[in-house]
Amino acid sequence: MLSAEESPLLRLVPTAHEAIYNRFAPHQKRWILFHVSFVGLLAMFVQVTFVPSIPQIAKDLDLTDAVVSLAFSLSILADATGALVWSAYSSFYGSRAIYLWGMPLLCVGSCGVALSASLQSLLFWRFVQTFGCAGALSLGTGVIGHIYKLEERGTAIGVFFSITLLGYAVAPFLGGAATHHWSWRNLHYSIGAWGLLEMLFIYLSFPETSHPGTLGIDKLPSRRSIHITWINPLSSLWLLRSPNLFAVMLASALMVNTVYVLVVPMAYTIGIQYGITNEAIIGAFFLPNGLGSFTGTLVAGRLSDIVVRRWREKRRGTWCPEDRLRATWIGGLFIVPLSIGASGLITTYIEGPVGLGLNILCLYANGVGVDSVLNPISSYNVDVVHSRSAEATAACMASRLLILSASIALILPSIERIGVAWTNIIAAVLALIGQGIIFLTIRYGDRMRASIDVGFSTMENN
Question: Is the pTM of this model over 0.85?
Answer without folding.
Answer: no
